[in-house]
């Protein structure tokens, strides 16, 4: 006996979002009225920051928690500048703030790593493995090419 299709198709269950614009907007308005960040708003921002840090491009950094802390500090500095009258999308505003804080942290780490490698090279030690690949294609910032060319071309018996 053939099965009769019902007129109503079964819909897959809707996933519950961890944070919505409506919730975030209500908390930011509440915080603006109080003049300080509410505990619920702080938890929401921490959750947003944590979820953003789990993205593939940031998940395996050894200093992921430091990036999150820097992003939270940045959000705490700028949360008052979000104007609910101009925009109804605080989720996007704070996500972009967190994204740029992560970029800023990574750039500062890159500068520190470059300084560390330059100091290692200046003291006759080996730089980190990917030091050569950190540059933007310009070898002028990397190893002292003349020094290494002399080493390669010199005869050790001289």
Molecular structure report:
The protein is built from six helices and no strands. The chain has one domain (21-153). It has 158 residues and is mainly alpha-helical. It is flat, with a radius of gyration of 26 Å. The chain has helices spanning 21-34, 39-53, 64-78, 90-122, 131-134, 145-153.
Features:
mainly alpha; 6 helices; flat
Task: Compose a concise summary of this entry.
The protein has 158 residues and is an all-alpha fold. The protein contains 6 helices and no strands.
For this structure, the quaternary state is single chain
Order of helices and strands: HHHHHH
Mean pLDDT rating = 82
Contiguous low-pLDDT stretches (5 residues minimum) are 139-143
The percent range for helix content is 55-70%
Instruction: Provide the domain count.
Output: 1
Termini Cα gap: 95 Å
Radius of gyration, in Å, reads 26 Å
Category from helices, strands and their pairing: mainly alpha
Q: Approximately how much beta-strand content do the residues carry?
A: under 5%
Biggest beta-sheet profile: none
Envelope shape: flat
The total beta strand count reads 0
Number of separate helices: 6
């Amino acid at each position: 006996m053939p099965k009769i299709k019902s007129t109503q198709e079964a819909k897959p269950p809707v996933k519950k979002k961890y944070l919505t614009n409506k919730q975030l907007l209500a908390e930011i308005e509440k915080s603006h009225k109080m003049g300080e960040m509410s505990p619920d708003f702080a938890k929401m921002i921490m959750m947003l920051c944590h979820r953003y840090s789990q993205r593939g491009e940031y998940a395996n950094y050894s200093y992921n928690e430091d990036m999150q802390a820097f992003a939270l500090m940045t959000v705490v500095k700028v949360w008052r500048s979000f104007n609910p009258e101009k925009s109804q999308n605080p989720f996007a505003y704070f996500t972009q703030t967190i994204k740029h804080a992560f970029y800023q942290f990574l750039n500062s780490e890159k500068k520190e790593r470059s300084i560390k490698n330059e100091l290692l090279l200046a003291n006759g030690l080996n730089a980190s493995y990917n030091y050569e690949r950190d540059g933007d294609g310009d070898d002028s910032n990397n190893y002292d090419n003349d020094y290494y060319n002399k080493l390669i071309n010199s005869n050790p018996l001289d």
